Amino acid sequence: MTPLLEFDHVTLGYSSSPVVRDLSLAVEAGEVVALLGPNGAGKTTTLRAASGLLTPMAGTIRFDGADLAGRNPVQVARAGLVQMTDARSVFRGLTVEEHFRLRHRRQTLDRDLAYDYFPALRKLAKRRAGLLSGGEQQMLGLGRALARRPRVLMVDELSLGLAPVIVQRLLPILRRFADDADAGVLLIEQHVQMALSIADRGSVLVHGDLVVEGPAEQLLRDRHLLTASYLGSNENLDHEQAQST
Ligand SMILES: Nc1ncnc2c1ncn2[C@@H]1O[C@H](COP(=O)(O)OP(=O)(O)OP(=O)(O)O)[C@@H](O)[C@H]1O
């Protein structure tokens, strides 16, 4: 089966020195893949390249079997490879409802689909986004991304600034979306345990190198594998363990 999204020996960087080296990674239809790793590992850079914002120094990124080289971010998104925009970029003066009337990267949004995933948003339809809580704004951001009906959805730190309990409520929506739509999800998340609990597979980047990958269940079971791969950046893992116990 051809993966929906495939990084094939991809090297990425901003000037001459690479920050991601020889990365091979695939996301299949119906699959949630967690891209993990400590700060500065190259996770965001990886998503940027898939979104068409950064050209690989070497290697190929394919979407549905086709090389993405030369496609701009609008073309990539229109093809169905969508990155959720930062929830902090909601339009504070617009209501929830109005957010779904705006087109995004020239795509019309399926508001009812978003409301199916987030019934709370329907109730907040007339409220201005600036008056929503952080968690509600994140729901709106994720709702708008789902409303574009992506074939692969990329999410960079859904949890940023949110309480773990809210993250715990939002992450399963990604799982449900992958299952319902037979879509792929590539998820960057600092809450490693929570991310792996909804993922099929996990990959750990450290200083630009993919050091561990495997089924999510196995990574959850063999925690030492993950801890060792974080090479001295264990606070994330320990911190999360403390919060979940
Ligand atoms: N626009 C840029 N120009 C130059 N270097 C950059 C740029 N953006 C990121 N970097 C560098 O690339 C490396 C990887 O950064 P990246 O943001 O991809 O890491 P990350 O794994 O997403 O980290 P975090 O978890 O902290 O967000 C870092 O050393 C970072 O300083």
Automatic annotation (TrEMBL):
Native source organism of the sequence: Cryptosporangium aurantiacum
Any one biological process term the GO annotation gives: L-amino acid transport
Database matches in Pfam families: ABC_tran
InterPro entries the UniProt entry points to: AAA+_ATPase, ABC_transporter-like_ATP-bd, ABC_transporter-like_CS, BCAA_Transport_ATP-bd_LivF, P-loop_NTPase
Keywords of the record: Amino-acid transport, ATP-binding, Nucleotide-binding, Transport
GO MF terms, alphabetically ordered: ATP binding; ATP hydrolysis activity; branched-chain amino acid transmembrane transporter activity
Protein name: Branched-chain amino acid transport system ATP-binding protein
Lineage: Bacteria, Bacillati, Actinomycetota, Actinomycetes, Cryptosporangiales
Family statement: Belongs to the ABC transporter superfamily.
